[in-house]
Amino acid sequence: MIFLVPLAAAVVWSAIQTVHEREAEVEAQAESIAATSAAYLNQYLDGLNSLAKALSTHPDVRALREPECNRLLADMLKDQPLLLNVLLLGPDGVIHASAVPLKLRDTLHLQDLLKVASTGRPVVSDLTFGRTSGRPSVALGYPVLDVDGKISGVLALAVNLSRLQEVFASIPLPPGSVITLTDRSGRVLARSLEPERFIGSRITTTPVEPKNAPAMSRSAGPDGVERFYGNAAIDRGPWLLSVGIPHSVVLARVRALWIRNVALLSLLLGGTLVILVWFGDGLARQLNRLRSASERIAGGDLTPPMRGRASSREFEQLQDAFITMAGNLRDTRDALDRQVEQERKMREMLQSLQRQVVRQERLTAVGLLVSGVAHELNNPLQAILGTLELLERSPNLTPEALEEVAFIKTQSGRARDIIRNLSRFSSQQSGPPAPVDLREVIDEIVQLRKRNLENASIVLTTECAAARTVYANFTELEQVILNFVINAHQSIEEAERPRGRILIRLLDTGKRVRVEVQDDGPGVSPADEAKLFQPFFTTKPVGKGTGLGLSVSYGIIDSYGGTIGHAGNDWGGATFFFELPAAPAS
């Protein structure tokens, strides 16, 4: 709003200049009207001079014939509304004729008129008041010559000063203006406003000769109104004719101009304000758009803002720079994200390699241990198998004994195969795979664990929905499923439930065959899930488990290109599973 200070100063200066200009304009107008009014008055006086000259040469007037002159003067007065009377006087001032009935032969004591008889020149009397009418007037005296050219009388025209302003009636005047006629003593002879009030009064205490009066003056009149006066001298009087225009006319003209200027200024300021509001609103919208984009970027959304309409080139450049900045920040963040992702993958790969190294070291240690144990167990087992073969050849054994010997031999052979597999695991070499029907493996497991599970009040059920075979070693798969069943048995016993359930499920999953062992035990805690298949990890008490079952199972399934894992189930327990590629149909 600082720009309003010079604007206000300019408005004040313009207003002062306007006042001075209007004052000069009113002064010039007053002078012009004064000159025009003086011309009107001189024209009227010239008409009276012509009238007096015509009357003074009339034979009856020259001869001072009273009856004829009375009629002549009365007829002439009818056509002169501004005259009070027309008199015909003798050189001694005796009245010989009158347009208005008067007492004739009376003497009119007007020294100014008597000068006409002595000088032979027209004169103008001072202000007088009529004997009968009491109205203010001045008398214009003209000499009357007889046929011999001698002064025989004086023709006097009494001008009605109360109606003299009618001479100026056709002159347009601003409201409140006044035309004043004064004599050399400053006494008012005629006035266009309130003549009865002011005629005869003096309006100045320092009389000025009319011809020496300034052409322009400014003062307060007898009515107290301040006016600009234009002055013009009337030589016939001598009188001073003044035209006064009120100072209020200046104010009225200035007011009209001020109203127009104020209206224009208001329109200008209003338009400027509208433009500023419009520009400010557009500026605010653009700043809000940039602020919103900044808040969005601060919140993590580095999407460059949409390019909008800019109100100026600077804002367009600012918007382009902001869009470029957001794009660069997004590219930098994406590059950092890619770098962080690569580092994460490398870290995960390194951790995986570390886990594999640890697992390999553990498996190596387990392999060495298992290799020694298998070697130590294999010799007594061979002796047992040899003894069983000798017993089978004995003729003294009953069929029941032979059946038990056959069963012991079968289980010893199974133990020998397990020892062989452990030896193979320790050397990280799998036996040659062959087509295996997993239904047969599951049947073998059921037959092997059925009695123990019944004694523990655990129901074992199977669901075999797949008939495809897999390439693997029968004994190794039996060992894996048996580990799952034993773990489920032990988990249910730890829960100390009166009854339990175990479900062995066989199903197809696309190009693979899946085996699941599901129990209703307490399940696996989340803290133990990551360590289930690590060697020597067990949740069983000391002496109840070695922590090798799932680790060995993992090695067996992995060696055949399968997957092994754990999940929860709807019973609230655990489900262990493995998947192996299905063998091609023959």
In short:
The protein is of the alpha+beta class. Helix content is about 50%, strand content about 20%.
Kindly describe this structure:
It is a single chain. With 586 residues, the protein is an alpha+beta fold. It folds into three domains: 4-247, Beta-Lactamase (2-Layer Sandwich); 337-429, Orthogonal Bundle (Helix Hairpins), CATH 1.10.287; 433-581, Heat Shock Protein 90. Helix content is 51%, strand content 19%. The chain is built from twelve helices and 18 strands. It has helices at residues 4-56, 59-62, 66-78, 111-119, 195-198, 247-298, 313-392, 399-426, 438-455, 474-494, 526-529, 549-559; strands at residues 83-89, 95-98, 123-124, 128-129, 136-145, 151-160, 178-183, 188-191, 216-220, 226-234, 239-246, 434-436, 458-464, 470-472, 500-509, 512-519, 563-568, 574-581. The strands form four sheets. Strands 1, 2, 3, 4, 5 and 6 form a six-stranded antiparallel β-sheet that branches. Strands 8-7-11-10-9 form a five-stranded antiparallel β-sheet. The mean pLDDT is 81.
Features:
single chain, 586 residues, alpha+beta, Beta-Lactamase, Helix Hairpins, Heat Shock Protein 90, 3 domains, six-stranded antiparallel sheet, five-stranded antiparallel sheet, 12 helices, 51% helix
* Apparent shape: rod-shaped
- CATH class of the largest domain equals Alpha Beta
Can you tell me the residue ranges where pLDDT is under 50 for at least 5 consecutive residues?
A: none
How many distinct helices? 12
Radius of gyration: 72 Å
